Amino acid sequence: MSATLVAAVLLLAIAAYATFAGADFGAGFWDLTAGGAERGAAPRDLVEHSIGPVWEANHVWLIFVLVVTWAGFPEAYQSIWLTMFVPLTIAAIGIVLRGASFAFRKAVVTTRARRVFGGGFALSSVLVPFCFGAVAGGIASGQVPSGGRAGDPVQSWLNLTSVSVGILSVALAAYLAAVYLVRDARHAGDGRMTHYFRRRAVVAAVVAGVAAAVGLVDLRSEAPDVFEGLTTRALPLVVVCAACGVGALVLLVRDAPRGARLLAALAVVTLIVAWGVAQWPYLLPGQLTVADAAAPDGTLTALVVAVVAGVLLVGPAFVLLYVLAQRGLLPEEGVETADADAVDSPRR
Length: 348
Prior knowledge:
- The protein is an all-alpha fold and about 350 residues long.
- It has 14 helices and two strands; from the N terminus they run αααααααααααββααα.
- Strand 1 (about 280-285) and strand 2 form a beta hairpin.
């Protein structure tokens, strides 16, 4: 029972990371595609304003996932890292580079320096979700062997399933971010940016839907056990995911996005939960079950107690942070653009 509970907590934490940090990564995607310094100034300003107060906190979910996996399912943790050390290392470097670039871009004043750090922030924001998606695709398609054996360090995450899931991860992150930014632009009374990100949210939703359909077809041949799970016991969740995605898309197309943000988040959450249900009872499909990978009962019990204590202590702070951020009550960071213009201009 403890192993099942810890596995459920782990799955929900992955969903939370995809929802919160995924939106931050997606904002980096729109930063990357915004255009030149002058053309992309408005969308980049909105991105900085939206994610600035919360981007550091969102990676707490990733740390939580790593710690729970390591403590609760050490054999699975060992197996995943032995095979997937390349994409996971790239993702770790990308997260550090992304955070440093985002922070320094707000602290420097010259346009040239901001472009350098902005490029690091944007490229890392695309690379990290792709790598995480590739890892998930490799696990689902049986590329990670158990028992202390390492799989192919390249083929394990650069195969058709991994690449399709990686592209889906980037598309979903971009979709979430665009939907959230529509709401933020509307809240700020910026009609131009509302229309700008509404169009991009619609395009990202279509791309994500196509990527999901292609990935599902590929799963049928490369990961038949997961495909069977998605079309049987996890089918209700898949239907809910599709309904939420279509509902959010309809609201965006009709320019009535009041409930689009909630529906978009629910679509991502139910997709991840459906994936977990489809894999059940395996952590590594066909090779390692949750029960076999679980730590001793005493460790699992202590882990559950620690998780409950952490939720009680940290949860209210997270809620307060997000409420203050949504209400615009947190202070702005960085330097004013006017200062950058003054530094770039030659003295007369």
